[in-house]
Amino acid sequence: MARVRRVHAIVTGEVQGVGYRYSMRRVADETGVAGWVRNRPDGCVEAEIEGTASQVEAMVDWMRHGPHFARPASVRTTDVPPTGADGFDILPTA
What we know:
The protein is an alpha+beta fold.
């Protein structure tokens, strides 16, 4: 059985108003990860992603590019304890 990993991520750059969160939810569903994503008032996108190490890495790789109109500048991740989450949600702005 694969070990579960969860990361907290902050994405900077042009990532709001470009479909980033909705695209991320679609990719999360395709990848099979759980977690959430939301906009922050400072213009960043914040997310937590949980799945196998390879699933989480695939999502973080996608986050570095995002959807077509996004221009991510950086993705900072921190490992956090897994929660056993199920599904992927778009949360209201923090």
